[in-house]
Queue: 3 jobs
Job 1
Amino acid sequence: MSHAAAVAPAESPPVKRRRFHLTPYSLLFPAVAILLAALAYPVGWQIFASVHRYGRAQQFGQPAEFIGAANYLALVRDPAIWSVVVRSIGFCLVNAVLTVLIGVGLAVLMNAAAKACRLILQIGLLLAWAMPVVAAMTVWNWLFQWHTGVVNQVLTQLGFSFHNHNWLESPLSFYAVATIIVVWMSVPFVAFSVFAGLTQISPEVTEAAQLDGASGWRRFTHIVMPMIRPVLMIVLLLQIIWDLRVFTQIKLLQDAGAPLSETDLLGTYIYRVSTGVSDFGLAAAMSVFVLLLTLILSAPYVRSLMKEESL
Amino acid sequence: MSRLKPGRIVASLAAVVVALVWAFPVYWMVNSALLPNTVLTSSTPRFLPFGGSLKNFRAVWDGGTFLPALRTSLIVTLTAVLCCLLFAFCAALAISRFRFRGRTSFVLAVLFIQMLPAEGLFIAQYKMMSQVGLTDHALGLASLYAAAVVPFTVWMLRGFVAGVPADLEEAAMVDGASRTGAFFRITFPLLAPGLVASGVYAFLQAWNEFTIALVIMPSAAAQTLPLWLRGFIQQSSTRAVDWGQVMAASTLVALPVIVFFLLVQGRLTSGLVAGAVKG
């Protein structure tokens, strides 16, 4: 990888690259400084709170009592938390996989469509991508609104009995709606990234395979897929990270009127434990747990990413 | 050219259909914003804004809270974007142009920070900000935003810097330019598209962010646009919801971003190529 070569001073031979430089460290300094300033204290506090009894009284200055792993034990013993964890992992995997599958599909479609139609598709996706999440959630709440929402009205006109149907009432249809929204928002990023990867594949390669008699599907699995693998890895990893921590969409859907305890995912549950019940210790322990969960779920991708980047 | 192959025609048609499906919620927002509430609450949906007007927009605008929120959003976002770009650019230079001890750890840390569950950090971030007196303050929110987008921006810019061969700079130095001179005359102009793409990304993240703002900016006077929109909905749902006005408010929040996005979309996608494909 030629780009990785250091910019050696002109007069020194280019082989000698292991000298200690101050430059990279001073270049890293501002980024590291702002990350530390914004995150070091919160992360440290979180670890501290997770091993202490930390409620509203401690928030107002009472010393926190060290209770070791009690918060973590409480977390493990609470069946309600386990159902939140299971739901979150399920939601995360379903959404990440759907998003990447549809994203790849649309990227292939972009590649195959005529130029004008490709542009139309790109603009359609961009509109969804650019929507601020709160605005998007407002619109989706309006689309699925039980009384005058267009989804119910159209379904009723088509002869289904969806008159005054509340989509957010039962957990399963709540998650279905949430999945539609999250996938709708996330697909454009995946589609554009993968499309960008596809445009890097030279047409000669696929044409050569075609001359050799490879079918469309074989060309896709044997030539295209391996070449866009790095992009796929990154987008899948990011989707898993993002979808496990999905918060705003769930929170705003709940705001629109859904039973909280049955629709909570990890993000909203932690938020409720800390702001509602004021059990900051338990909330902190759960955050640490979510972090570990993310690490476990993404470890295989990070490892192969690191291998491919030869870091 | 294989212009008229049946496969291409089917793909083109499918592309248009998917585009319409994907854009529908955005269209529906604008459509509803133009229609009066009496039409919106009738039992048959109206798919085209016949008989529409800008009345809903005027009502929202006359509420008088939109402009202050817009101002806060602009200040916070621009501060965050400028800091983020500058810091991330330096860091990207360091990791793609130098091999040094701690480089791998930094790259891993960048990925790791993406995984921190933000909902758990709110409380501590609020505590921290209130200790230094920066709650309800644009600077406090801007610095949290800058920190939140720096990791991904480093990741993206790294691809761009890597895409400009160091040989180019070396050639200029052989021709007598100083190292800094070579950098600013040769490399920097080639990086402009990358900076634009990353800047747009950072802008959108900060402009659209809702959760941190919800915690850090509790007072109504210091609201950013997403908070303002949520407040607008909550306030109107104590009465019967005026969906026309709510959609007009959503459109006002979304429109600048959509226009901005369409203007720079070519650069943004090429930015994703460079950031994601090149190692």
Job 2
Amino acid sequence: MAVTALEGDAGPDVDRTSLKTKLRRAERVNRVRSFSLVAPLLLFVLAVFALPIGLMLVRSVENTEVRETMPRTIAALDGWDGQATPGEDVFAAFAEDLVQTQKERTTALVGKRINYEVPGARSRFLKAGRLIDAGGGGPWGEKFIASDPEWGSVEFWAIMKRAGNTLTPYYLLTSLDLRQDAEGAISRNAPDQSIFIDIFIRTIWISLLVTLATLVLGYPVAHLLAILPPARANVLMILVLLPFTTSILVRTTAWIVLLQSNGVLNDILLALNLTTERVQLIFNRFGTVLAMTHIQLPFTILPIYSVMKSIPASHLRAARSLGAGPLTAFVSVYMPQTLPGVGAGCLLTFILSLGYYITPALVGGPQDQMVSYFVALYTNREMNWGQASALGAILLLITLALYALFNRVVGIDKVKLG
Amino acid sequence: MLAPSYATPREKLFYFFFALFCGVVFLFLIGPILVIMPLSFSSEPWFTYPLPGLSLRWYIDFFTDERWRIALQNSGIVAVFATLIATGLGTLAALGLSRGNVPFAGLILSILISPMIVPVVIVAVAMFFGFAAVGLNNTYLGLILAHAILGTPFVVITVTATLTGFDRTLTRAAASLGASPWTAFRTITLPLIAPGVTSGALFAFVTSWDEVVVALFLASPDQRTLPRQMFSGIREQISPTITAAATLLVIFAALLMLTLELLRRRSERLRGTGA
């Protein structure tokens, strides 16, 4: 606006450009000022949130254990052609490295890393360490192979050589139940070791069930809240918002109290003679989906409600007056207009459900644990941080893809709270 | 009463079942929370109705037991500081973004909101590794920073929502009357966006107050928070002290919701929209 007005002026060209420049400069100053308001939080989020997550992603392909602890062996393996058992130079380097790892107590660490790909390797490494401790000299090749013929395996040394690379696809492949053999070909893991695809499918399936349940339960409630007079709707809204602001842990505790075999729900079922013995309601899929549905229900209801609230009641009346039956009017006039809310609510619930950890851990059984549980398990208990990071990376990828979809379909700036 | 006046008897019957269905869903929503509260007043440590007798022993236990007391104190410290950081930075960012001339505003907003979307275990594990490198694990500061991150999206969302209805001519008028940007902000903008800032702060507070996963990874027993104490309690054996803690948290949540509702009304009144 300002620019066109200026151009209409009869002033000389020089003034016009200088005014334009000034205006542009003022706008730039303004932009910088706006950005400087955003910058502190952006930097904070990038440093404390995005950077650690980025490092976690790196960790899912990082592979420094073997290279750092057995540098001589890896260097010696560089010259190995992979056709036959490596020569004495490799074994001598390996023995030298083992002397070092025994001193630094890292033999078990390397053994554990190789053990991921060669079952039994950890104990073989520990045995080799004891062989080194016993003292004596070479030739090491004969000595190692005499202690365990597996030391002569070409396949083992090929995997050892590969484990010396600084990057590995191993953890990501394992997260997808894939393995890479000594030659580098990728194949499916043995069925008894294939657990992760099942876990991802389970996670998605539970999230779908929860999303569907919240939609079926939430859609009518959102409609009721939208058509009631405000005073009564506000009272009923409390019943939606109180659970929303109550701690997830409190609600999960409540479900444990309700569902356990000597809990309240079983008491009611027995008192009503609906069952003759106590039913297992908890530590199974039913309990998990029920508790998660309870927690997610407000997240689905609120976006649907806010869309329904904006649909004029006259639309339905008009449809009816034009001869549509109640069902036709609802399905063909009202429901299509609620779809943006349904999309927003369901997508939000689905995305949030994918990351559930606490609730399944407390009310689910072993078969109901979702990806997050295994990320925590591999971090805390198994100490296999590469695997934890790889599982986390895949879960993050799925979540972010859905988040991008949500952003495109709904728009993150449209999200409201309460 | 729900059915329109022109409804046929069949429709009225339908509306009856519709209302009934909604009633059941409301019961489902509120029931579990209502069931757990009376159990905290039980005189015996088992969870059955009718209650064997009434007592306050679990509340006495909650307030006298050293572990619960420390957990309550830790939760308070961490939540207050996390809220201050989240509210300060979040409000500034929302103000900047709402000026409408920030380059890549959409991308920046997505990044700022993402802590709400990324599964919390990923946040916890990533920070567990990242913070270990700089010695922030097992410190109050680490936990406060992590909780502040989780709280900021709520502040950004609520303040942005308040600012969309904000009349910019007000600050321009202030500036034309000679007010410095800071004076204009303090006397014009801040009072008008205060309800949004406060409800954002409340959401940030409750996020930290309820957070358990990050606390499990980043905090040592010294920094154990209330949810973490509850979590280990549930894991081992649900003692009625947990139901007492839960009841107190429900009351806390109810007060919070009430405050949010009052703030929403105030905000609507200030903007001259709403009823």
Job 3
Amino acid sequence: MKNNNRARMPGYLAGLEPLSRRGFLRTSVLAGAALSSGCSSLFGRREAPETLQYHSLTPDEVEVITRLTEVMLPAESYGLPSSTTVVPTVENIDMMAQRLPKQTRDLMGLGIWVFNNRPMVSFKFSKFTSLSDEKALAYVDAMQEGTFFERGLMTTLKALVALNYWRDERTWPGLEYHGPVTEMWGVRRLGNAPLPRA
Amino acid sequence: MAFVRVPRDGVPVTQAKDVALDASLGKQFTLKTDVVVVGSGAAGATVAYEMAKAGRDVLVLESGRYYPSSQFTEHLGDTMTKIYQDQVGQVNTTADIIFVQGACVGGSTVIGACVMEEPGDKVLDGWAEKYGLENLSAKNFRPYLDTVADQLQIHTNEAHEINACAHKVIQGCEKMQFSWKPAQRNVKQCALTGHCLAGCPSDRKMSSLVTHLPWAAAYGARIFSDTEVVRVRMLDGRARGVEARITDPDSGAEVATMNVDADMVVLAAGAIHTPLILQRSQVKDRSGQLGRNLAIQPFTQVLGKFKEPLYGFRGALVGVQVDEFTHTDGYTIFSGLAEPESLLAQGDMKAGKAHMEFMKDYKYYAGVNAFSRDLGQGYVQWDGDPYTGDKTIHWNPSREEFENMKASAALAARIFFSGGAEKVFLPTFQSLEANSVFELDAKMDEVDYGIKGLYTFRSNSFSPHGTCRMGADPYQSVVSPTGELHDTPGLFVADSSLIPESISAPIQWTVQALAKYVSDQINDNAANYFIG
């Protein structure tokens, strides 16, 4: 019986020293849950508001997620709705985060922080958000090809972003994906099956 | 003989909102019944129907919400949000395996891909011999499987149910000379929408939502949704009911607590949640096997890209299965490509232009789910207080299981290349793809077992089983051959937890047959369990 509102002991944060293997692992765990839970907001499909208000993501988190969305989903250059100004990808993630259990939400924040601050020599120890487009993409690719915990974290964050973009039905025509068809095809509902014969 | 009328559409379900509006119930109330069934999926629905038909007063408690098929949207995302367990966030402790499970009235039968397969005579006879389950021998268990097949209208896919995705698998198998066959599914007059994973809005999938639950209700069974059983109530060592809480499925607010007084408790909450309820209830367990022996049938999704557009997501979701290795190595491969969101379960989906191009090629893809048999060495555990604790699912591949997963995925890739694929995306956390069959082995070799196989293959499980295994020996098994716990009279298990060892066949057919078997055991010995 999970009580999402209960206060959690911070024990799970112990050992989450930045960059430690365990830290990355736990972050990946959170992110995995977040990925799946990421589907929680798939029903959103709201119009992108002119002024975005975030209820769960912090400004720093918004900055990281927005940057990752820009880097990962250059949709407009493929004739698809923008991932930041048309499809409210980041706001969808925010809606998802609101519904996450506290423990998972905390870990999500940690995962985003670790991702942004993961120092890599080849990137001159810069934060992800301060990298140029080209280097930001290279950073994402480097994480994906990194150690097992790095690729776990990266895969999960990618999935988080991608799910919250491709869930929007405005993206589907670009894939030639038909979406719901039962009503369009006029498929008749059969209702309940009759009782088996004795 | 009484006239029994099945509702034309939907199931009469008491939901949290109904309880909240019923002032006579209050914040805490008690119901009395002959049999309380925990869970309304494949097993729970079957037990409810069989027991209600036998004249018992039956109460079904389902922790998930009631989502009638008339409201299904064919949006996979909507569906995941509303009726997938933990919003598809049910994962192992290292979060690299997703346990996909329905959390709604009808359980996983509502969101399943409709694939049905018998366990096989050899498996059943093995259970009989190894675990003292003579009633489950192939000869004795056959009538149960046949009954379920009739009830669920299980049939072998016909030609129109084999879509372009499946045809690529067939072509590959023909060239490799691998055995394949049309899959068996529990669908009546399939409308070929391809939206099985989001529920069937036209009621063609023979889920419990349109079969055993309305049938049970027709015989008088009462069904509560949004009602999570915390623990089994005991009196003098015998199960006497359950303690549950009702929560609003949208806000999570607790609406009421419910106590049920019952002559019998039947747990059918699935192989993950049934042992957790038993652990919270602190039942006696001489075997030490409660929650253990978790087998998960891990599967990976392998994508092949073809030169011509396939629109492989159109038509029946699962068309064919490759059975060449099912009985020798435990690998079974099913064709299937679902909604765009499902591509994200495949593995790394790249970033930037590479991601956009990966997604834009959706219409060129064929997909398969490559299953491999595991050793059944996982376990589930409840940590903490019954009300505020947490579940944990422990399963990571051993080296042998990792190699099985790798072999199964490699076979799927070879089949695609033989079928004409120009590229195959491997189901890994690493970004791996092979552009020809000649690259395949080298690419696969890049997937290293590492530490406990963590973040290697991107795996899922739809068929966990084995966590309350059935057997004659109380020191080796949790549940007796009748379905009753060895050490707790009046407490039965009827779901996939019972399956005594890892099997490779999809489990729904077996589970519903087991549930009917357990029901028959109870009904045949009713005088021992019920007064009057």
